[in-house]
Amino acid sequence: MTKRAVVAGIGHYLPERVVPNSEFEKSLDTSDEWIRARSGIERRHFAAEGQTTSNLATQAAQAALDDAGLTPDDLDALIVATSTADLTFPSAATMVQAQLGMRQGFAFDVQAVCAGFVFAMANANALIVSGQVKRVMVIGAETFSRIMDWTDRSTCVLFGDGAGAMILEAQDGTGDNADRGILSVDLNSDGNYRDILYVDGGVSTNTTGYLRMEGKEVFRHAIEKLAATAATALGKIGLSGSDIDWIVPHQANIRIIQGTARKMGLSMDNVVVTVQDHGNTSAASIPLALSVGKARGQIKTGDLLVTEAIGGGLAWGSVVLRW
Ligand code: UT7
């Protein structure tokens, strides 16, 4: 008998305010046409004033609990992947724990920027397969609108706010690839690339800072590293791209998504794409895409999925799971 971390529920929350590309034409030398052509983004959601990352995360978590037919009392742990927590501390996760009314278990944040949800799923999986917990709420939630330089057209048109949440639960499997749940994980980082995607401020420097990115450089790394991490995770369990039903990629740029699918030998018919509606929501993008993909009827019980993401660090990785 092998313990598996199986998806028991999924949900998401997007702030009400939807901002189309045309909105940026009023204040920047940019166009709807450029943003669509270079990134695939058509619109994004921005949090309202006073609406924080833990608020978005709590709404997504509640949606996941509803989907699973569970209550906060059923959870043993709660992990939030975010780079935009409400405060320096306590963690966004403990804030969500309180907002849900969850009094037991433990909660903590994971910070791996856009790859955060993949790293958080890997943590949850380790807690479950080692027998330490039975059920983990894993959330990706961000308010990147708070770290945008609104005068920098090369970054501020690309990002959005949102949250997605997944409940992983311990179930007994047979140990082969037919099992439901997380089947394989691959994580990587290389801090030598810190200068191509970062925020130029932080607590220890007594500053706030804005997101800075050398887009072309990040792009250059993205397709190659994403296809490689997916191949590594699949290879660990004797599979390859042709075995999977869905790639659920980090939603940063449609050209990266297409290039990665091509490298993995898959057509876009096998890819869940939400970048046009959400923009890049960093750690929230994969759970948002999973939730939307399920709601659209694309992802079904028993499907084999690869999720993959890359972001600041650089940090990148992938998780193979059967839904
Ligand atoms: O989630 C974390 C990972 N992040 C990513 O994966 C992002 C990776 N990078 C990208 O998605 C792309 O590199 C971008 C979408 C950021 C940029 O696309 P690109 O095709 O690499 O464009 P570029 O940076 O080479 O810029 C081309 C031109 C430049 O003008 P010149 O120098 O050719 O005259 C830019 O100044 O486009 C200009 N440009 C813009 N023009 C209109 C840059 N931003 C804009 C804009 N509107 N918003």
Descriptive account of the structure:
The chain has two domains: 2-173, Thiolase/Chalcone synthase (Peroxisomal Thiolase, Chain A, domain 1); 181-322, Thiolase/Chalcone synthase (Peroxisomal Thiolase, Chain A, domain 1, 3-Layer(aba) Sandwich). The chain is globular. 31% of the residues lie in helices and 27% in strands. The two termini are 19 Å apart. With 323 residues, the chain is an alpha/beta fold. Strand 12 (304-311) and strand 13 form a beta hairpin. It has a five-stranded mixed beta sheet with strand order 1-7-6-4-5, with helices on both faces. It has a four-stranded mixed beta sheet with strand order 8-13-12-11, with helices on both faces. It has a two-stranded antiparallel ribbon with strand order 2-3. Bound molecules: oxa(dethia)-CoA (UT7). Oxa(dethia)-CoA is lined by residues 30, 34-35, 38-39, 114, 153-154, 157, 215-216, 218-219, 222, 252-253, 256, 280, 310-311. Oxa(dethia)-CoA (UT7) is lined by residues 30, 34-35, 38-39, 114, 153-154, 157, 215-216, 218-219, 222, 252-253, 256, 280, 310-311.
